Amino acid sequence: MKNFLNRFIVRFIALVVLSTSIPVSMASGVNSNSNSVSSEQQKKKRPTKKKKRSEKKRPIRKKKPSKKKTKKSDRKKERPRVKSQTKKKPTKKRRLPSKKKPSRKPRAAPKEEKTDVTTREIKKVSIYELSDDIYSLTHELDKSMRRLNKAKLVLKPFEPAREDKYKIDKLRLAKEKVSQKPSSSLAQRELALEYERKGMFANARDIYLRMIALEPSNADYHYFLGSLYSKSGQHRKGRFSYEEVLEIDPNHTATINAISLYADTPEGEKMAEELYDKAATQAPQGPASLLSEIRDYFGNDRLKEALAKSQEGKSRFPNNFIFPYLEGQSLEALGRIEEAKKSFKYSMTMDRTDPAATIALADLYFSQGNYLYAAVNYESVLSLQPLDVSLRFQHGLSYFKAHEWNKASSAWEDLLHYAPNHPEVRHMLPQTYYIMSLEYTRNGYTKLGRRSFANALSVNANSNDWLGDALKMIGEYYRENGLYRNALHAFQDAIDIKPRDIEGYNGLGMTYWYMDERELAVAAWEKSLSMQPESNNARGWMILSKSMAGS
Fold first, then answer.
1. What is the largest distance, in Å, between two alpha-carbon atoms of the chain?
2. Can you state the percent helix, strand and coil of the chain, rounding each to 5?
3. How far from 275 is each of 172, 236, 292, CA to CA, in Å?
4. Contact at 8 Å (CB) between 39 and 24?
5. What DSSP assignment string belongs to 445-470?
């Protein structure tokens, strides 16, 4: 029975397989041994179905869709590349017409017309007649920018120089010494000198009067009082004190030297002669008689005799500094400058308290153009004569001409504390501040430049009074340092402010000359000579240019 059932099931399965077109091999897994013969017969009867079976076996390979998906994903990744390429193509097409701009063609035509016009004009007119146009063209483009930079400067209030907080109060120390040693004449003298430096002449006078009352036979005390009166301008009272000194000591060196350096007014000259005569009668062999003769020689321009007498006094009175000083003055007047310097320096080493030789040496340096050394020597005697306004102005002027702008401004700031309405300082100090503002701005310190410009206007708001001179000075400074373009701008701006200023044209011509622009330099000098033919430095430069052209 079992065999029968098995056979029946196999046949039934075979019929089902044949009816549904399912390969027999799938059903053979049930009982391969029992159905091996039938399967072989089916294969022989239907060979064509092998292909169909093989074709149907291919869907088993449907595991490969992953590869196809990867290919699709790769294609998706590649799509942006294709898109970017497609995007670049229209951009290239769009850029092509922009490269070919037709605007270049009309630009070339007016250039040719301009060159033709300029060449025709140059052929007809000389370059000297076109000098004004050349000057305006050289700076016209930069002029607006410079004005804008000047307009950016913000006004700020002027801040005068402040005293150093850590500066030693010498007056307080002198008072403490007097309180500790009230009977010391040296301490009293130091306190009186500090009062003189502060301008407190009444307090110093009281000290000298007390010293004279305690010891009236001391010639030095009378000399102290006489020199105080001379410094304060009370020459008559000073004469009385000097007479007292000469009665006590006819050869008092300090008094005789002070009389020789007395005021240059007619009254002072007469007073000095009378005092010298009085001293000479009391001590004929003393220095007073020699000094009187030397003064006479100087007054009559007998310089060689004055030099001989000065050298005689130097040998006879080797400890008196006045004779080397007078020797230096004689040598300077005779043109023997180097020897005069040695005499002044020798006099300075003999007496440091008297500023006469130091001031004479500073004046000599200033006349030579050695402004820096002049300023140093002026500064060394300011402590001895702090109230001398002319000395302070000369001190600042020396630094200004030496192009030491910061030192010049500080010197003149100090002078304003003693003379707030000094006219020359009100003209020169704004120039210094303006030059400092240009230099700060040129070096990138714009805030300091604005502050300096504000200080200039706070000292003198009328810029037309000082701006042209400041531009000429900074033009010279730039030319000396090889900044020729900046120098040209400065001189041209000065000419714009004062069109009839010959110094601006002369400076412009010199700048062109150093730039090897000889024709432009000659044009500038000719413009200057057309405005002022006489007493003009441009004439000398014109002669030099002609000699250079001839050679």
1. 187
2. 75, 0, 25
3. 38, 12, 10
4. yes
5. -HHHHHHHHHHHHHH---GGGTHHHH
Residue-level pLDDT at 165: 44
Closest CA to 472 of 507, 502, 448: 507
Long-range CB pairs of 222-225 (<8 Å, 24+ gap) are: 222/248, 223/252, 223/254, 223/255, 223/258, 224/189, 224/192
Q: Is 400 left (phi over 0), alpha (psi -120 to 50) or beta?
A: alpha
Phi/psi at 253 (nearest 5 deg)? Answer: -65, -45
Q: In this structure, what DSSP letter does residue 541 have?
A: H
Q: Which residues of 207-243 are buried (b: 16+ CB within 10 A; e: fewer)?
A: bbeebbeeeeebbbbbbbbbbbbbbbebbebbbebbb
**What is the reported pLDDT for 67?**
47
CB-based contact 525:538 (threshold 8 Å):
yes
Minimal CA–CA distance to 286: which of 252, 258, 318?
Answer: 252
- Containing 522, the helix (H) or strand (E) segment is helix 518-531
Q: How far apart are CA 440 and CA 486, in angstroms?
A: 14
The two structure tokens encoding residue 95 = 């850029």
State how far the Cα of 487 lies from the Cα of 79, in Å rounded to an integer.
66
Question: Which tokens sit at 300?
Answer: 């009559």
Q: What is the pLDDT of residue 100?
A: 47
The Cα 163–Cα 175 span in angstroms is: 21
Contacts of 241 (CB under 8 A, 6+ apart): 222, 223, 225, 226, 229
Other Cβ atoms closer than 10 A to 120: 10
> How many Cβ atoms sit within 10 Å of the Cβ of residue 273?
15
Cβ neighbors of 228 (< 8 A, separation 6 or more) are: 192, 196, 201, 204, 205, 208, 238
User: Crossing angle, helix 36-45 and helix 2-20, to 10 degrees?
Assistant: 30
Provide the Cα torsion 152, 153, 155, 158; round to 10°.
Answer: 170
Residues of the chain with pLDDT under 50: 21-45, 47-57, 62-64, 66-78, 80-93, 96-103, 105, 108-123, 128, 153-166
Residues, the chain: 551
Cα angle 266, 268, 269 (rounded to 5 degrees) comes to 65
Contact 254, 286 (CB under 8 A): no
Cα(116)–Cα(320) distance, rounded to whole angstroms? 81
Taking each continuous run of H as one helix and of E as one strand, the counts in the chain are 29, 0
What is the C-alpha to C-alpha distance for residues 317 and 304, in angstroms, rounded to an integer? 20
Does residue 478 contact residue 128 with C-beta atoms inside 8 Å? no
CA 135, 136, 142, 143 torsion-angle sign:
positive
- Determine the Cα–Cα distance for residues 500 and 488; give it in Å rounded to an integer: 17
* Residue 324 contacts residue 289 (beta carbons within 8 Å): no
Spatial distance between the Cα atoms of 288 and 303, rounded to a whole number of angstroms? 19
Amino acid 334: pLDDT:
92
Opening angle at CA 141, ends 135 and 144, nearest 5: 110
